[in-house]
Design brief:
binds zinc ion, single chain, alpha/beta, 32% helix, 373 residues, 6-stranded mixed beta sheet, 2 domains, Aminopeptidase
């Protein structure tokens, strides 16, 4: 009997980790061999095609009454959720000491997974699909074929719960120490008043349960997104229609640019969320509000004193990640900031550096701080 499941999952993680996919640039080419080799407990179906005719798959497991839908990479360059999803599949295949939990979940839940909803964006390493549509803002217009496919699953499956898996940028931080937001959650609003309906309470309960478990492992690194209502956002609309939608944003863990560590916590969060839905443990939804808000106080590099001509400035540097010849290149982009104790970074440069002008400093960054993954 495992007493502390999250600790066990963290310690045993390498046995669940799907080693055939990793990193930031995860495409259909990477996941297809894994999908076709899934064992028979998974029912694999081709759901349809993307705008550029790439396959989108639907993978079903379990036979229970509670219906859970989970999709990843509706933003093509946000792969951490996909990686975590395949770790979760390995848990279903071989749960090690957690066989009872696996069996309980599959007996009580039917789960449908759509890994890489936006395969064209994944190939090109872009947020948008091949028509330059943000799938997370296309739920009403349904202009993208990928949005139509997701809608068709919602209409036919009518899930009780959805997990909408995304990645967030390094700039997001949590709490007073401004640690990186390794995971952030949102129970989307259904109107501008942000009413806390019964459905939202159910969503909040699942998030509260994930937060309670995960904060043991990554204290101070879990945030909550603003629940401002976005009338065209997928999660807000699904929640409004009664499909309780949990948004998970995978973010930065210090110096983990491939997000291998974040992926581990994303996998654990997903499993704990599904466990909560299956077991329906009594959790106070109000604990959702104990999760600190995300803020934007984290940088890749912080330069405290940069002398340009005669004046001293502080700069925050954030990497822009661009696909160049099959590699993700992290290009440093700097911005002047008013330095205060709110800021934190992976690397803090306190010594005073001298430059002739802004371009001189930008070139210095390109020469010294640019790298590829
Ligand atoms: Zn996203």
């Amino acid at each position: 009997m495992i007493k502390n499941i999250v600790k066990y999952l963290e310690e045993s993680y390498l046995q669940f980790n799907e080693k055939l996919i990793s990193g930031r640039h995860v495409t259909l080419v990477n996941i297809k061999p894994l999908i076709v080799n899934l064992p028979e407990i998974f029912k694999v179906q081709e759901l349809g095609k993307s705008f550029e005719n790439q396959n989108i798959y639907k993978i079903k497991i379990g036979s229970g009454r509670i219906k859970i839908l989970c999709w990843s990479q509706m933003h093509g360059n946000e792969s951490t959720g996909t990686n975590a999803m395949f770790d979760l599949f390995n848990f279903f295949i071989n749960p090690l000491e957690l066989k009872d939990l696996r069996d309980f979940i599959l007996k009580n839940c039917t789960l449908i997974f759509i890994p890489i909803l936006n395969p064209d964006g994944a190939t090109a390493y872009t947020r948008l699909n091949a028509q330059n549509i943000d799938l997370n803002r296309d739920v009403l217009d349904l202009k993208a074929p990928e949005s139509v496919l997701l809608r068709s699953v919602i209409d036919s499956f009518k899930p009780n719960y959805c997990f909408n898996l995304h990645d967030q940028r390094t700039i997001f931080s949590v709490g007073k120490e401004n640690k990186p937001a390794t995971l952030s959650f949102l129970a989307p609003s259904i109107n501008i008043e942000r009413d806390i309906t019964d459905g939202r309470k159910e969503t909040m309960k699942v998030i509260a349960s994930m937060y309670k478990s995960l904060k043991e492992l990554i204290p101070g690194q879990i945030g909550r997104y603003t629940d401002e209502f976005y009338p065209t956002a997928t999660g807000d609309n699904f929640q409004k229609e009664g499909f309780n939608t949990i948004l998970i944003e995978a973010g930065h863990y210090k110096n983990d640019y491939n997000r291998d560590i974040t992926r581990k916590y994303n996998f654990i969060a997903l499993l704990i969320g599904i466990k909560q839905i299956a077991e329906n443990e009594d959790v106070d939804y109000k604990q959702y509000f104990d999760i600190p808000n995300n803020s934007k106080h984290y940088f890749d590099i912080l330069y405290e004193q940069v002398l340009i001509k005669t004046k001293v400035y502080s700069f925050g540097v954030t990497y822009k990640e661009v696909l160049q010849k099959d590699k993700i290149v992290c290009i440093p982009i700097s911005k002047k900031i008013d330095l205060d104790s709110n800021y934190n970074a992976n690397k803090i440069v306190s010594e005073k550096l001298n430059f002739n002008d802004n371009d001189d400093f930008s070139n210095y960054l390109l020469r010294n701080e640019q790298f590829s993954l």
